[in-house]
Design goal:
This protein is α+β, with helices and mostly antiparallel strands. The chain has 7 helices and 11 strands.
């Protein structure tokens, strides 16, 4: 029996005890009667778990988040500097909804520390994936070689025979004018994953090389669709991967 399943069973046992202690026998009875849907019961019970267990909740372990210098123009986050409702699959358990921030300067997933006035960074090795704002970020930890991307969180843009991944990063850029100070600048990188192999993609030619067994068909489809790789590489790669899924035997 896997560690994750053992943990879920332990969680459910603890939840049953909590139900008895806090006067919610109906909830306990429902879980006992439907033991075949353990995973669903866990995900639905997380909010109740927070209320009963409080700061002992398994999600709340990590180091304190260190804020970036507030004098820098902009912010280090993906999408918004305001917390967004998200879902986190952490150490074998799905937590949702959880207010999240994704710092792409440091590649850190940030949440509020329970019942405290500071934020924490979740342990990356325990975070399989998280999602918010229509994006799903997965943890990639490939074998080290020249073509492999660096380990970290990647936006899973399409999940098929060929995966399309985006890596978002921000860096701090100093202005040539002293009075303007420094600011955050975002850079995006794209990868196609086929099997266990990752291919960095910057050009249409590099993307088509990944679909080499159907290169002609994919190229014609892209041309007929009127999608310009140079203008919109993200949309182009997703369209190519989706079409490849359709025609690949």
């Amino acid at each position: 029996m896997s560690f994750a399943l053992n943990m879920k069973k332990t969680f459910l046992l603890g939840l049953l005890i909590c139900c008895k202690l806090f006067g919610n026998p109906l909830m306990a009875q429902d879980i006992i009667q439907d033991s075949s849907s353990e995973v669903l019961a866990v995900s639905r019970s997380v909010n109740y778990y927070y209320k009963v267990i409080g700061e002992n909740a398994h999600l709340y372990n990590g180091s304190e988040y260190i804020q970036t210098d507030s004098r820098i123009k902009g912010d280090p986050f993906f999408g918004s500097k305001e917390q967004q409702p998200g879902a986190i699959f952490y150490d074998g358990t799905l937590y949702s909804p959880v207010p999240v921030l994704y710092d792409i300067l440091k590649d850190e997933l940030v949440i509020d520390r329970y019942n405290a006035h500071f934020k924490i960074v979740l342990i990356k090795e325990k975070t399989d994936y998280f999602s918010f704002g229509g994006h799903k970020f997965i943890r990639v930890d490939p074998k080290a070689d020249e073509e492999s991307p660096e380990a970290g969180y990647y936006d899973l843009l399409f999940d098929g025979k060929v995966r399309v991944l985006a890596r978002y990063k921000k860096k701090i850029v100093e202005s040539i004018y002293l009075a303007e100070g420094s600011s955050f600048v975002q850079e995006n990188a794209y990868f196609l994953q086929r099997g266990t192999q990752y291919y960095p993609v910057k050009t249409k030619k590099a993307a088509l090389a990944v679909f080499k067994d159907k290169r002609g068909e994919v190229s014609r489809y892209l041309r007929k669709s009127g999608i310009k790789f140079k203008d919109d590489p993200q949309n182009a790669m997703v369209s190519m991967a989706k079409y490849y899924d359709q025609i690949k035997n």
